[in-house]
Amino acid sequence: MNTNNKLFAFLCLTFSFMLFSCSSENDFDDNTGTGNSELVSLLKVSDEGISSFMVDNLCPVLDATSPLAADEIEFLYALREDEKMSRDLNLAFSSLYPTAIQFSRIGTAEATHIATIERLLDYYEIEYPALSPDGVFADKYRQSQYNELLITSNTLENAHTAIARLEEENIVDYDNVLENISNPNIKIIISNLLKSSTNHLRAVVRQITLLGSSYTPSLLDGTTYQVIISSNPGQGNKYQQKGKQGQNTNSEKGNQQKGNKGAVNNSGMCRGCTNGTSPGSNSNKGQTGKGYRGGR
Hints:
The protein is built from eight helices and seven strands.
């Protein structure tokens, strides 16, 4: 096992210990129920723009809401799989091109993105399957895309271009879904993922430039792309800590008693929830739920 894989295994083990349900004794500094007045960030951004989530900062800034609907559960599962594909691809390129340290750094950052989505599912008491092995996806669309990107990235430049394409796709899709998300907690996750993708696109394009080549966007319009490339790494928003009202897991939300609020299977389909129908209302391909990004 090479050094990058050992480091990744250690980080995965660390994240597995981090994934406990949000509870009052872990989330708050006082007993008043008003929370800490200090604003907190969810993103930690390096000088080169690699953006990692600070997972432990998530629960204190979440709002009390109704339990998730089936479409929302399926969307978060699909989002988790997309972040897994980015993580797996970056780590695969890290093994193929060990001198290109950006891949391992972005792959490690993507692992924190996965952990943050899982923390939100824990917060809503949603059961979800363990991640499949690296490079393996239950969804045929994602598996095909992963295989194609891996096979066609036969040079260092092509590998960087593949990651840039993924980040570009993320930016477009996150912009689209933000217009349709009503749950404020999911919106927080997507907003910070969007910021991360713009940072990572900028970082990867910089590496392509250093290789003496250039990157041409395929989804972003030229003006939007130039604004992203010419900007400094974005740190993301800061959030007010909300206090204890409804924050100790999902037990007080929507007048539901404490307990499981839903589950999603290995195919990303909701097997039942307290708010919504299984397998979700979005039976056609679309931007949220089952059809997010064309999956299944």
